[in-house]
């Protein structure tokens, strides 16, 4: 898949504008806390949501609004999650009505999302203030995307956005994203919000299928702390304004779109994991030589989820036994007899385990490798040709500090 990285986030694709404002969910007036993304036209749309049995009211509304496969705007607030509130669904619907009135579109074409503290009372007041302000400030620009990305942050330390340009049917298409999430990142729709926009023409059915293809190998392979959120939401809108022949059946053009979506999702996953609460390292585990892809993904995920190994990375300790242990308790029918492990970073690579046993290495060299921010754990299972990847971060003192006073 050939593509070019471009600026613009969710505003990189034709027909999309975004804005972020301070609506009052947060006490600090300098913190943006409400975002709107709007398309010029009604878009094919799809979503993937949390697997938690307790889920935010906006997700219930999203599922209803996506039933016909179309949408035109996204509304997001941060600081107070619309979850476990008695008036949650009514409030989410009322917010969609406000957005519809401000943008001149049907309320049913608005997709709401929410993030922040769970179970706190919510009123319409900050929405009534912020929605008209954000609607008036919508920009189809780098600035518009950045402000929207900033408005959806909670414990994130930096805004997350990415966009690429690629070709479909001889036409130049763009795909961009913004996201938030530094904690409650866990299995099956890592705990975060993510909003994708593209000007490629793709049918609603294949848009949904593409998401369901990409999420298991990207967002479901990311972890910070094994706490699955109540508000996980990934929404994808396709305006079709690039002018390519609509992708309505599987084939080469569909495969190209899936590859583009996968490229953006992989990059966003690395951003989320890198910014894990209190993190000082991004840990990527790349598994090769596995008997099948499911095993490869499971092993990679097991390694990045190991609290013992995460703590070792924080301490720059090449304790490869913790990696082997995590591989060993991974569910599945496979042999660990030929497993080898290497640790790599911009400072080099050390071979620490061969055939599930110690391989001589320099502890000093290994500590230097682990002093880099981005750490790559290379696991070769030695029993097949399947591959898998997962993203995580180290476990630090600051993770406890951040979550100990999250509501303060």
Terminal-residue CA separation:
46 Å
**Overall average pLDDT:** 93
The CATH homology group name of the largest domain: L-amino peptidase D-ALA esterase/amidase
H-E string: EEEHEHEHHEEEHEHEHHHEEEHEEH
Biggest sheet features: 9 strands, mixed
CATH topology of the largest domain: L-amino peptidase D-ALA esterase/amidase
Helix and strand composition category: alpha+beta
Describe the structure.
- Helix 5 (204-214) crosses helix 6.
- The model has no long low-confidence stretch (mean pLDDT 93).
- The strands form two sheets. Strands 1, 2, 3, 4, 5, 6, 7, 8 and 9 form a nine-stranded mixed sheet that branches. This protein has a six-stranded mixed sheet with strand order 13-12-11-14-10-15.
- The protein has eleven helices and 15 strands.
- The termini are far apart.
- It has helices at residues 57-65, 88-103, 125-136, 142-151, 204-214, 252-274, 293-305, 307-314, 320-328, 363-369, 397-404, and strands spanning 4-5, 16-21, 34-49, 70-77, 110-114, 160-168, 171-180, 193-198, 233-238, 282-290, 340-345, 348-354, 357-358, 374-380, 386-393.
- Strand 6 and strand 7 (171-180) form a beta hairpin.
- It has 408 residues and is an alpha+beta fold.
- It folds into two domains: 4-274, L-amino peptidase D-ALA esterase/amidase (4-Layer Sandwich), CATH 3.60.70.12; 282-404, Ubiquitin-like (UB roll) (Roll), CATH 3.10.20.
């Amino acid at each position: 898949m050939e593509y070019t990285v471009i600026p613009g986030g969710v505003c990189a694709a034709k027909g999309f504008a975004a804005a972020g404002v301070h609506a009052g969910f947060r006490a600090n007036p300098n913190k943006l806390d409400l975002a709107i993304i709007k398309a010029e036209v009604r878009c094919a749309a799809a979503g993937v949501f949390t697997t938690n049995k307790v889920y935010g009211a906006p997700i219930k509304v999203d599922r209803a609004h996506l039933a016909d496969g179309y949408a035109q705007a996204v509304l997001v607030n941060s600081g107070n999650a619309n979850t476990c509130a008695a008036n949650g669904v009514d409030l989410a619907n009322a917010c969609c009505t406000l957005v519809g009135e401000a943008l001149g579109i049907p309320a049913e074409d608005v997709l709401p999302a929410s993030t922040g503290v769970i179970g706190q009372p919510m009123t319409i007041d900050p929405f009534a203030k912020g929605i008209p302000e954000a609607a008036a400030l919508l920009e189809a620009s780098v600035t518009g995307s950045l402000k929207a990305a900033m408005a959806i942050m909670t414990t994130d330390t930096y805004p997350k956005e990415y966009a690429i340009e690629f070709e479909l049917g001889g036409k130049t298409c763009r795909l961009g994203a913004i996201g938030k999430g530094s904690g409650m990142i866990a299995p099956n729709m890592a705990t975060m919000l993510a909003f994708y926009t593209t000007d490629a023409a793709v049918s609603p059915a294949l848009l949904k299928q593409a998401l369901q293809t990409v999420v298991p190998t990207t967002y479901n392979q990311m972890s910070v702390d094994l706490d699955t959120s109540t508000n996980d939401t990934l929404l994808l809108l396709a305006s079709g304004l690039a002018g390519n022949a609509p992708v309505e059946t599987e084939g080469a053009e569909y495969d190209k779109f899936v590859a583009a979506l996968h490229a953006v999702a992989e990059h966003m996953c690395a951003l989320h994991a890198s910014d894990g609460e209190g993190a000082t390292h991004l840990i990527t585990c790349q598994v090769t030589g596995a008997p099948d892809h499911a095993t490869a993904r499971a092993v990679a995920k097991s390694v990045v989820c190991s609290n013992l190994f995460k703590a070792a990375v924080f301490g720059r300790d090449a304790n490869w036994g913790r990696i082997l242990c995590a591989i060993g308790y991974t569910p599945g029918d496979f042999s660990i007899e030929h497993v080898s492990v290497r640790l790599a970073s911009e400072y080099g690579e050390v071979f620490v385990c061969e055939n599930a046993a110690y391989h001589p290495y320099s502890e000093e060299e290994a500590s230097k490798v682990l002093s880099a921010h981005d750490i790559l754990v290379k696991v070769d299972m030695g029993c097949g040709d399947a591959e898998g990847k997962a993203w995580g971060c180290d476990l630090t003192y600051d993770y406890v500090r951040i979550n100990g006073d999250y509501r303060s």
